[in-house]
Automatic annotation (TrEMBL):
It comes from Paralimibaculum aggregatum. It holds the Pfam family Hydantoinase_B. This is Hydantoinase B/oxoprolinase family protein. InterPro entries: Hydantoinase_B, Oxoprolinase-like. It comes from the Bacteria. Residues 12-538 form the Hydantoinase B/oxoprolinase domain.
Amino acid sequence: MTKQNNQGYSLDPVTFEVLKNAYVNIVDQMAEQILRTCYSFVIWSRDFSSALCDTEGNTIMQGSGDIAAHVGTLHYTAKAVIKKFEGDIHPGDVFVVNDVYQGGTHFNDTRIFAPMFFEGELLGFAQANGHWADVGGAVPGSFNVSALDHMAEGLRITPVRVYSKGKYLSDVAELIAHNTRKPDDIIGDLQAQAEACRLAEREIQRLCQKYGVETIKTSFAEVQDYVETLTRQRISELPDGTWETTDYIDVDPAEGEGLIPINVRMTIKGDSVHYDLSGSHPRTISTFLNCCYGGAFAAIVAGTKMQSPDIPLNSGFYRVVTVELGPVGSVVNADWPTPVAGFCSGPFEKIMNSVFELWAEILPERAMACTFNLDYLLIGGRDTRHEDKPIFMWYDWMVGGWGARNGRDGWAATGPVFGVQLGTQPFEGQERLSPVLTTEHELLIDSGGPGEYRGGMGVQKGGTLYACERTVVSYCCDRERSVTWGLWGGLPSFPHGVWVNPGQEGERYLGSIFSGEPLHQGDTVTRPSAGGGGLGDPLRRSVERVLSDVTEGYVSIERALKDYGVVVRLLDPDLAEYEVDLDETLAARQRIARERPAMLEEDPEAVAARYRAGELTLLDLIRQYGVIVNWGSGELLEKTTAQFRDMLKRRTVPYWSTRIEQVDMDRPTLRVA
């Protein structure tokens, strides 16, 4: 084993391997400590991450189940605390920080940070990050679409001491907690995170006693060198070159309709990889779907790391993977006091999916189409089931579909790429804590993006309010207009968006980004999550697989014909027996192959008018015509449609078959380099 600078490692391989894995185990123990002692339902649902850092704040190791959006940011906040308190850090100290302008993600992600000492010597730091359900601001849950600056989003906590030499500073903790809507939960979570840091210190001290402090200090450096060397070796085996793509945020509300570009340019040179995001939208947008440098860097790191899941993650990785964000003040490099609470649904998801797309050209065996967009639905108000009418927050996120993969369909009803280990919150727990009754939660038919390999299925979830007053709803999402896209000829999925009282009197469509909308007892709120995008030409999907999808309830008979060109007939509804007409299927596929390019050139307003008249469906517009409308009113979004069609002509149309000579049976194909 040789380091990049050709100096030999000083630790023997066995000791090195034992300690490297011990550090992963320590961070995972921190996770268990938080999970078993936290107060809030959000953190209990695993919206947290932890890390060990060296004396400079560099990450030594992260855990095996951390949130992707936290990856790549914990070392930034570590360095911010060290800089603020340099020379004034003592055994028993604990610090708290959530500052997005000092390397954080959004204000809900609050980091508890503590030094690790052994016999009076500072060895490093432990850090536990958790998503606090509320940090104040104008709306419950602190997701304020209308925020003009971060002051309207919630409490900004610059690095501050909350334990001093082991003494709990209750005045500081309570000042923070009582600027939120759930102070008891905040205090409980803070202390759970602090105890996780103390656990890490005890475990490091135990290793020092067993192996010696100098061995531990050496291993802190060498595990980072190891990751750097391993990553450089992996990159050096790949071809040099530059690849570029663009994804989109739905809209800047202040600028009118039109997609907001997130441009990612990747260059591999030798044994390093560099990303340039400076071609993205040059200004911040007038809502909270902006991203500071910490969140943008985390998206790059998480997307790249998924190409080599076997490599551990620490600051050695960051020496190989570098990022240029461009001028401060852009949508991916927001500055103070820009609101950024929705970074995870905005630039983060777009950057990460763009990274997947770029790597698909280099490692096609790992190719994956776009995944569904992370969403947060927050219903908050007063719970009248109790005499004192406490504040409640129904804080909900959805599972959805991942993109189809090279040779495989996408995963259905899975956590977002933002954080795969996010738990699907049990309805029983939600209903106990909030007066919202879950009325539906099921796979959404036709939500998987069509392709030779189908995107994973999204879901539909609904809830009805009861025993409540002074209640509002907020929603943080995207991909209502920049619909989850397919790759290499695959088709898009399904748009996100929230309906209140669908199919009832007072029905209204709220869209995919809003806050503070009033709700009343008896209202029902329903929303879908998108499936994943398809991969490959859907006319090349085997008829057996399409028939199986219909039988399983994943694809309707109507969409089997329109999206896949497969003619399916229902024989016996009680027995769910179907058959495929192979002759008509071949004719349908030949017709679709001839006609589909021209459908993307039809007059958009004429198509929108047919939608408003009920002649075309939502999925017809998205998949066959590339037309985007306001899904509530049917009004054409002209500029958005032009951009969406351009995206289809880049990602999809060039890979379509122009002639269909036969009906493919169950014959999987795999694209190779």
